[in-house]
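Let's study my pick:
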Amino acid sequence: MAGIELRSAAFSDHSMIPRRYAHDADNVSPPLAWSEAPDDTAELALLCEDPDAPSGTFVHWLVTGIDPRIGGLDAGETPPGSQPHRNGFGERGWGGPQPPVGDEAHRYFFRLYALPAPVSLPDRATADEVHAVLDREQLASGTIVGLYQR
């Protein structure tokens, strides 16, 4: 399986995510860029999840239907024609980090999936529901991990 290089101008892999992107600050999605998807990619899907959340893995961002010809997103951007789903806060689109005060830094896994066909996911899909579909269907994927602590 091929890999996609996923990166951000806002943070490096396994480094701290700036406060601007946090839920209790500006709550703006970070900029992301990625390498080209495989030729037979029909759409991209983007997931950000926190596996360290006290109540179980928390979905911070899920966007499906991303045009595979684009190579990234600016801060706060939703790709044209894509489908932003509801996050764990119940909001549509990005819901930034907001770990409990005093917790060790939480890990935020940003995952980009190249898919051979459009996928159907519930509007407020759980992380398990997302992985059950995207992990099985993917042609390629890439991951970058950011850290955040309050």
Q: What stands out?
A: The first helix runs from residue 127 to 137. The two ends are 37 Å apart (CA to CA). Strands lie at 2-3, 6-7, 15-16, 32-34, 43-50, 58-66, 72-73, 83-84, 106-115, 140-148.
